[in-house]
Structure to design on (172 residues):
């Protein structure tokens, strides 16, 4: 059985790889759906924040005398690339982007809750404090995404209806 410290190291590595992946996915997604400026700007901002969060997680690992996982990072980057490519295939990219990023953000919220509890169990109070800060940042992002979902969906539907009217008028 693993100790709380061993689990903490393992799960910090997972979270670090997830933040590296999030940084890539958010930036690439923002570049794909430029028609939704506020949403794209928010994705870009959180993409930058994900890089900062990855740095803080790496520091937590270093404080424990550990390093990140190259395998987990590579797997995450491959997954990020695949997720980004899938956006080029579907026609409703903005709506799918809201769904995917909200899912990712809520997963990270839960991950940081788990990390904070595990750090406390391992008596790593500084790491627990860092995880609580990261948790608050992810809750803010998840809440913002929840607010963006109806906005982006309405904008998308309005554009789609406008394009359908233009096609109908052109055919007449």
């Amino acid at each position: 059985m693993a100790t709380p410290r061993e689990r903490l190291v393992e799960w910090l590595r997972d979270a670090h790889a997830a933040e590296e992946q999030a940084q890539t996915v958010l930036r690439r997604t923002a570049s794909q759906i430029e028609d939704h400026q506020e949403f794209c700007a928010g994705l870009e901002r959180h993409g930058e924040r994900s890089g900062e969060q990855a740095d803080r997680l790496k520091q937590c690992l270093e404080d424990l005398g550990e390093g990140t996982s190259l395998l987990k990072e590579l797997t995450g980057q491959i997954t990020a690339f695949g997720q980004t490519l899938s956006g080029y295939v579907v026609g409703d990219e903005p709506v799918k982007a809201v769904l995917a990023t909200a899912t990712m953000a809520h997963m990270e919220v839960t991950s940081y809750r788990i990390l904070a509890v595990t750090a406390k169990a391992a008596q790593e109070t500084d790491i627990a404090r860092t995880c609580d800060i990261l948790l608050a940042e992810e809750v803010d992002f998840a809440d913002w995404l929840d607010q963006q979902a109806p906005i982006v969906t309405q904008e998308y539907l309005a554009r789609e209806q406008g394009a359908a009217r233009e096609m109908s008028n052109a055919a007449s």
